[in-house]
MI domain-containing protein
Amino acid sequence: MFHHCCLVDKLVSMAIENKSDAQLVARLFNRVVSRRLCSPASFGEGFVSVAQALDYIAIYAPQAFERIVIMLKGAHLYEDDECCKRLSSKSRNSGMLLLLLVPSC
């Protein structure tokens, strides 16, 4: 559903700059996944805009790569190799994002 990916986008965008917020959102995403309230496709779509802006965000929030990984793990998107590759390809520094996801994959 369209509104699911918009909510995911908003939550990820708001939590990317703060570790405790990222952890809170990750726990929420984990709960949503366990109850099957949002599809993996909607989660993936919700991360796209932040993944595209990640290099810029990292200038002001140097831990942005680590924080997006925290939230990706909460959404269980790290379990899907194709999704990991697709999201990391949105960032100019895709190698760094993939390296952070690899131990989980």
The chain has one domain: 2-104. The domain at 2-104 is CATH 1.25.40 (Serine Threonine Protein Phosphatase 5, Tetratricopeptide repeat).
